[in-house]
Specification:
- The complex is a heterodimer.
- Chain A is globular and about 70 Å long.
- The two termini of chain A are about 40 Å apart.
- Chain A contains 13 helices and no strands.
- Helix content of chain A is about 75%, strand content about 0%.
- In chain A, helix 4 (about 60-90) runs parallel beside helix 7 (about 135-155) and helix 10 packs antiparallel against helix 13 (about 235-265).
- Chain A has a single domain, classed as Orthogonal Bundle (MetI-like fold), CATH 1.10.3720.10.
- Chain A is mainly α.
- In chain B, about 70% of the residues lie in helices and about 0% in strands.
- In chain B, helix 13 (about 265-275) runs antiparallel to helix 14 (about 280-310).
- The longest helix of chain B is centred in the C-terminal third of the chain and has 33 residues, at about 280-310.
- The two termini of chain B are about 35 Å apart.
- The chains are: A mainly alpha, B mainly alpha.
- Chains A and B meet through helix 1, helix 4, helix 5, helix 6 and helix 7 of A and helix 1, helix 2, helix 4, helix 5 and helix 6 of B.
């Protein structure tokens, strides 16, 4: 009885610790600064969209939102495509060759970003890919390939090879088998990987910070970070930015929660 | 036998037949599939990683055509002569210590309480996981306000009951620990999920048998859960350690770019060195950074194995 009660208390306190900051930020985004400072917890006395108007017009956030959307979608799709091709090939190459190939990719998961960002900056500069959306897409792909190959490869390894062989006896080539057998059967794993990549790419800050110099090319996290200088203590405007930047991911989380949890924990080693 | 097992055995049989019939070998086309990913990965990931080691022994500033190889001088400077770097290293160690212990303890406690797949538990796990999906920049902003000394969430509660709250991020001696709290809030949810999976893999009969033998909840925890949670624990500790070195966005957003000295950790230090056009030196700091991570993960895992063996 006491055990049950204390369990309930602990769980409730932790739930409040998680929820209160989020509620304060959400409700705060509809308040003025003085309303927020007077009462950060309550419902906004006169809910207003002024802060949203401010971030979207003054803060360049609309452009950043569009840039982030394009970059994230392209990065996720291309990473999934390249990684699933690799994972498919690797999972069907028998013996040590397959193991070594997988190992080459997996090693990348333990390499922290700081270990290659400086030469990458130089390299992308030489290729004229700094301050370009294509450059950001490419670097997103590069940095998440290891973890994507790891998750997808692990999954495809469990697919029964007999299915491939049956299809090939019926005359379909390796490509047809990839498209019509490996891909559909890997759908759950693809979905989990996609959500994981979505979170990673949508929230990416370091490379945009290094690469992007024009205002017209900023991504959301970068735009938000730049706000901090402009709206130093104008919390409600910052909060509106936070809410806008989080909306797509929160919506996706509500509907695809299972895949989020699966994808993000299997990618946990990378994070 | 489950359906998957049936499929697997059935296909295994089929496979042997197939092998005999066609004398199959791997289709050469299969080797082409990893090629596009491999090219990009080697060109833009592997090669730059190796170049970091090369840069680390130069004095290159990032734009001059000429530079010199300076041997291990950069490393000597970082470890002995550069207070900015040693400050970041000290901060990082404190940060890591609190995050690894705090996050693991919080996550394991919550996972034990949320182990069963009831509706409430599944909901709570989803709620606790929620911060993980937010961008680090958002989390930084949220906590900047939580910690605001005058109007922030914590101090306005304390103020209303007449208590003078702490200075949080403005207090140089404790700022890094408050940052650790933010990091735990941010990532504990994922660790809870990993622990829950680990706990659910422990056979329920063990607990039933222990209960029959009259073992109380604490006894059951120390003699069953603790030793058998080792694999999950090892993942959580390694991940948390790496994560606490890689925190970067959250520091910049909570403290600004460049961050205050009290919140400067290795990843932000390396970035600042890079941004100051000291590419060679920043690369040397990166190499040290990699070494620190490897050592930290190794030491913590050893330590973990020791205490887990000691108690079981």
């Amino acid at each position: 009885m006491i055990g049950k009660l204390s369990r309930g208390v602990v769980l409730t306190i932790y739930a409040l610790l998680i929820a209160i900051p989020l509620i304060v930020v959400f409700s705060g985004s509809f308040k003025t600064t003085s309303e927020l400072f007077a009462n950060s917890f309550g419902f906004p006395p006169k809910p207003s969209l002024d802060n949203y108007h401010e971030v979207l017009t003054g803060g360049n956030l609309a452009t950043a939102f569009a840039n982030s959307a394009v970059i994230t979608v392209c990065s996720v799709v291309l990473t999934l495509f390249l990684a699933s091709l690799a994972a498919y090939g690797i999972s069907r190459i028998p013996g040590w060759k397959g193991v070594v190939l997988l190992g080459v990719f997996v090693v990348g998961m333990s390499v922290p970003t700081q270990a290659n960002m400086i030469p990458q900056y130089v390299q992308f500069g030489q290729l004229g890919l700094l301050d370009s959306q294509f450059g950001l897409i490419l670097i997103n792909i590069v940095m998440t390939l290891p973890v994507a190959v790891f998750i997808l490869g692990g999954f495809m390894k469990t697919l029964p090879t007999g299915l491939y062989e049956a299809a090939e006896i019926d005359g379909s080539g390796a490509w047809r088998t990839y498209v019509s057998i490996a891909m559909p059967l890997s759908a759950p794993s693809l979905a989990a990987t996609a959500t994981f990549l979505f979170v990673m790419h949508w929230n990416e800050l370091l490379y945009p910070l290094m690469f992007i110099s024009s205002d017209s090319k900023v991504t959301l996290p970068l735009a938000l970070l730049r706000f901090q200088g402009e709206y130093l203590t104008n919390y409600p405007v910052l909060f509106a930015g936070v809410v806008l930047a989080s909306v797509p991911i929160v919506i996706a989380y509500v509907f695809l929660q299972r895949y989020f949890v699966a994808g993000m924990t299997s990618g946990a080693v990378k994070g | 036998m489950t359906t998957t097992e049936l499929i697997v055995t059935a296909t295994a049989k089929k496979r042997r037949v197939g092998v005999r019939r066609a004398g199959r070998r791997t289709a050469p086309a299969l080797y082409l599939f990893p090629v596009p990913a491999l090219i990009i990965y080697v060109a833009f990931f592997i090669i730059p990683t190796l170049q970091t080691f090369q840069y680390s022994i130069t004095n290159w500033d990032g734009y001059s055509a000429a530079f010199d190889y300076v041997g291990l001088k950069n490393f000597g400077r970082a470890l002995t002569g550069d207070t900015l770097f040693t400050n970041a290293l000290t901060n990082n160690m404190k940060f890591m210590g609190v995050v690894v212990v705090g996050q693991t303890a919080v996550a394991l406690t919550m996972a034990v309480l949320l182990m069963k797949n009831t509706k409430t538990n599944v909901f709570l796990r989803a709620l606790y996981f929620f911060p993980t999906i937010l961008s680090s920049v958002s989390v930084g902003f949220i906590w900047k306000f939580v910690y605001d000394p005058n109007y922030g969430v914590i101090n306005s509660i304390l103020g209303s009951v007449g208590v003078q709250g702490p200075g949080f991020l403005g207090d140089a001696t404790t700022a890094i620990y408050w940052l650790a709290v933010t990091q735990i809030w941010f990532h504990a949810g994922m660790m809870i999920v990993i622990f829950v999976a680990g706990l659910q893999a422990i056979p329920a009969e063990l607990y039933e048998a222990a209960e029959v033998d009259g073992a109380g909840p604490w006894k059951r925890f120390t003699s069953i859960t603790w030793p058998l949670i080792a694999p999950a624990m090892s993942i959580v500790v390694a991940y948390t350690t790496i994560q606490s070195f890689k925190a970067f966005d959250v520091v910049l957003s909570i403290s600004g770019n460049p961050p205050s000295r009290a919140l400067d950790i290795l990843s932000t230090r390396i970035y600042s060195t890079f941004a100051n056009s000291q590419f060679g030196y920043a690369a040397a700091e990166s190499v040290l950074f990699i070494i620190f991570i490897l050592v930290a993960v190794f030491v913590l895992r050893r330590f973990l194995r020791l205490i887990q063996r000691g108690e079981s």
